User: Which sequence fits this backbone?
C-alpha cells in the first residue's frame, strides 16, 4: 500500500495492529454508506421476515404469539396456498419455455449484420423499456372482448370465438403469460444474440465442409455452443416468473377463483389486505427459498461450465 | 460465410413480420391514443385513427394529474440514480484500491444481497418505512434503493481493468484517496457510470410494487401507479388510458433510442458470467 509502505520504510516501524486499525478506519467512509443501507433494507428484513413467520401478529404487524412452524404447516394444508404454488408453477412453464423458443428464433434472425439490422434490433429490443404497468394496461384492452383487436385477429385467422380472456381460469393465466413473455422477450433476445456472436466461426466452417444443412448446424453446433446462455435465460425467467406481481394486480387481481393467484400476489393480499403479516411472511420465506435454490443452481451449473471449457 | 439471395430475402421477410409482432402492443397503444372515444369503443375494432385525434392527451391530462405523477417519477428516479452512483462508486473503490481487514468477507456479504428479492423483504421494509413516517414521501420511495450490489460489482469490474500504476503514481505524488477518486477514477469511470445511470433510471422509473405499497396519496404517486386513475374513471375511454400509457412510456422509449448501448450493457452485465 503506497503511502503507508513508504512511511514504514523511512520512519519508525509502526506496529501492525495500528496499521490494521488505520486501514480499516480509512476504508469505512467508502464502505459504510452501502453497508448501512444493505443492513437496514436487506439483512434486517430477511431476518425479520423469518421471525415474523414464526409468530401470530396483530393488525399492525407486531409479533404477538409464538407459534413456531405452525403457519408453514397451515400453509401447506391450505388449498389456497397449494393452489397458488401450482398456479405459479404452471405460469413458470407457460412463460419460460415459449419465451426461450421465441427469443432463440428472434436472436437467430438478428444474428447477421445485414443492412438495416440496427432498426430491427431496436424494435425487437423495445420491450425492455416498457413497464409492467404500461404493458398490463395495454393487455387490459387487448383482452377485453368488447374492444379486443387481438380477438378480432384470432377470429379472422383461426376462426376462434370472441374469448373473454380474463373471465376464465385457463385463459386468464394464458393472458398473463402472454404479457410476461412479451415483456421478457427483449432481454432474452439480447442475451442469446450476444451468445450467438461468440460462437467461433470455425465451427460453422467445418460444419459446412462436412456438408451439413442449416438445421443440422443449429442442432449440433449452435445450440450446444450457446447452452450456458440458454440455461441462464431459463433460470432468470423462472426467477422472474416467481416474482410476478404487476401483471396480476392490474389484469386479474388473482381471479377468477384464484386461477391467477401467484405467490407474490397472495403475499400482498395476505399482508396488506387481510393483515395476516405472520402468514404472509411464511409465504415470503418459502418464496425466498425457491429463488435461493434457483440462484444457487444457476451459479453452480454456470461456474462449472466455465471451468470445464 | 454468406447467405444465398433467397435466404437473405426470407430473413428480411421474417424480420419484418417479427418486428411487427413485437412492436404491435406499443403501436397499438399509440394508435388507440389517437382515436376519439366513440371510435375506440366499437367492435370489430378499427386500428387506423380516422381522423388523428390528439384530444385524448389533453383529456388524459385533465382527468388525472399526469404532470405531477411524471414529476414524482422523475424525482424518485433521480434520487435513486444519484444515490446508487455515489454508494456504488465508493464501495467499488474500496474493493479495488483499499486493503483492509474483512474485505473479502464484506465482498461476499454484499454479493449475498443479490439473492434477496424485494418481494421477500417488502413486509418488514414496509414496516420500517412506515414507522419512520416515510409513507407518501420521496424518502420512502427511494431510500431502500440507494445502494445495490449490482452497481457495486459493475463499477468494481470496470475499475479493476484500470492500470494499477495510476494509483501508485498518485499516491507517490501525495494525493489522498479522495483526491485520487475524484480527479482520476471518476473521469476514467465515466462510461461505466453512464451505463449505470441509464440502467438504474429505467429500473426505477418502471417500478411498480414498492410505490404501490408506500404511496396512497394522489400527489405522491408515481406515473406507473397513477396510470390506473385513467382506467377507473370511465371504462369506455380506452383512448385516454392509452394516451396515459404512451405518456408514461416516453422517457424509457427515449432511453431505448438514444442510449441503447448503455441499456443493453447494463442489462447483460449479469449475463457475462455465463
Assistant:
Amino acid at each position: 500500500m503506497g503511502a503507508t509502505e513508504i512511511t514504514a520504510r523511512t520512519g519508525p516501524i509502526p506496529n501492525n495492529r495500528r496499521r490494521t486499525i488505520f486501514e480499516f478506519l480509512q476504508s469505512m467512509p467508502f464502505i459504510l454508506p452501502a453497508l448501512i443501507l444493505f443492513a437496514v433494507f436487506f439483512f434486517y428484513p430477511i431476518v425479520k421476515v423469518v421471525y415474523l413467520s414464526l409468530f401470530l401478529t396483530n393488525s399492525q404487524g407486531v409479533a404477538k404469539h409464538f407459534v413456531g412452524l405452525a403457519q408453514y404447516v397451515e400453509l401447506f394444508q391450505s388449498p389456497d396456498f397449494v393452489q397458488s404454488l401450482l398456479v405459479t408453477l404452471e405460469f413458470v412453464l407457460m412463460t419460460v419455455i415459449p419465451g426461450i423458443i421465441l427469443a432463440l428464433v428472434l436472436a437467430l434472425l438478428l444474428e447477421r449484420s445485414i443492412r438495416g439490422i440496427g432498426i430491427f434490433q431496436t424494435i425487437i429490443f423495445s420491450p425492455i423499456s416498457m413497464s409492467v404497468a404500461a404493458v398490463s394496461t395495454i393487455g387490459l384492452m387487448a383482452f377485453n372482448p368488447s374492444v379486443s383487436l387481438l380477438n378480432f385477429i384470432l377470429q379472422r385467422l383461426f376462426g376462434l370465438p370472441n374469448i373473454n380472456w380474463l373471465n376464465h381460469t385457463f385463459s386468464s393465466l394464458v393472458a398473463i403469460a402472454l404479457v410476461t413473455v412479451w415483456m421478457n422477450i427483449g432481454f432474452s433476445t439480447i442475451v442469446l444474440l450476444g451468445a450467438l456472436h461468440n460462437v467461433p466461426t470455425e465451427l460453422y466452417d467445418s460444419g459446412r465442409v462436412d456438408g451439413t444443412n442449416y438445421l443440422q448446424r443449429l442442432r449440433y453446433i449452435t445450440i450446444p455452443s450457446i447452452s450456458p446462455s440458454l440455461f441462464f435465460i431459463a433460470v432468470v425467467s423462472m426467477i422472474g416468473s416467481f416474482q410476478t406481481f404487476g401483471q396480476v394486480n392490474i389484469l386479474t387481481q388473482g381471479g377468477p377463483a384464484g386461477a391467477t393467484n401467484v405467490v407474490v400476489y397472495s403475499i400482498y393480499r395476505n399482508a396488506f389486505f387481510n393483515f395476516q403479516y405472520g402468514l404472509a411472511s411464511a409465504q415470503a420465506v418459502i418464496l425466498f427459498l425457491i429463488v435461493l435454490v434457483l440462484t444457487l443452481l444457476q451459479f453452480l451449473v454456470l461456474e462449472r461450465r466455465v471451468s470445464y471449457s | 460465410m454468406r447467405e444465398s439471395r433467397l435466404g437473405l430475402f426470407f430473413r428480411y421477410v421474417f424480420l419484418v413480420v417479427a418486428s411487427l409482432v413485437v412492436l404491435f402492443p406499443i403501436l397499438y397503444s399509440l394508435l388507440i391514443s389517437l382515436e376519439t372515444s366513440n371510435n375506440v369503443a366499437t367492435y370489430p375494432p378499427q386500428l387506423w385513427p380516422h381522423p388523428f385525434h390528439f384530444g385524448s392527451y389533453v383529456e388524459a391530462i385533465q382527468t388525472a394529474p399526469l404532470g405531477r405523477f411524471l414529476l414524482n417519477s422523475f424525482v424518485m428516479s433521480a434520487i435513486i440514480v444519484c444515490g446508487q452512483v455515489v454508494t456504488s462508486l465508493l464501495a467499488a473503490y474500496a474493493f479495488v484500491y483499499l486493503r483492509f481487514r474483512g474485505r473479502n468477507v464484506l465482498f461476499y456479504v454484499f454479493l449475498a444481497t443479490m439473492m434477496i428479492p424485494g418481494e421477500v423483504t417488502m413486509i418488514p421494509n414496509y414496516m420500517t418505512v412506515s414507522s419512520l413516517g416515510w409513507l407518501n414521501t420521496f424518502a420512502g420511495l427511494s431510500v431502500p434503493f440507494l445502494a445495490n450490489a449490482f452497481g457495486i460489482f459493475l463499477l468494481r469490474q470496470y475499475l479493476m481493468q484500470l492500470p494499477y500504476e495510476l494509483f501508485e503514481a498518485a499516491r507517490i505524488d501525495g494525493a489522498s484517496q479522495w483526491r485520487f477518486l475524484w480527479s482520476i477514477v471518476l473521469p476514467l469511470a465515466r462510461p461505466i457510470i453512464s451505463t449505470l445511470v441509464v440502467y438504474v433510471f429505467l429500473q426505477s422509473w418502471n417500478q411498480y410494487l414498492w410505490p404501490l405499497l408506500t404511496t396512497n396519496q394522489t400527489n405522491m404517486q408515481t406515473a406507473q401507479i397513477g396510470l390506473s386513475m385513467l382506467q377507473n374513471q370511465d371504462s369506455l375511454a380506452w383512448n385516454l388510458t392509452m394516451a396515459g400509457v404512451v405518456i408514461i412510456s416516453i422517457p424509457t422509449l427515449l432511453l431505448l433510442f438514444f442510449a441503447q448501448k448503455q441499456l443493453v450493457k447494463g442489462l447483460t452485465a449479469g449475463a457475462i458470467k455465463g
